[in-house]
Specification:
The protein is mostly helical. The chain has one domain. The N and C termini lie far apart (31 Å). The relative contact order is 0.16.
Amino acid sequence: MESIYLDCTTLERLRTLDARYNERAYAFVLAALEEVVQKLPRRRHVSGSELVAGCRDLALRLYGPMAKTVLQYWNVRATRDIGEVVFNLLEVGVLSKDEADSRNDFDDLFDFTEVFETNYPWGGRSLA
């Protein structure tokens, strides 16, 4: 993820547009997008559900049992937040979209507690 870089002007535009998300959230989503695209047989448009799955997998790989905590620190608390980050990146011209793409494509694709705690792949259980 260290190779993802947003210039100062773009970061400032993102902060002005929507101050909810930490700049690392934007870099994380872009890194997940690049990983998803690299796994495809050829470059193409990636759907919201494909990107969210890529974000889930990257978070688990990079942050393990701390994935939910890290994402929450960046104010990414639900799959909808991933969509908000994507649409902010669209708004400032970093990404492009198809006509059919919508913020709603990112709604309720999985529950963070279920994926990152209850069903953590190494057998972790929620303390709640």
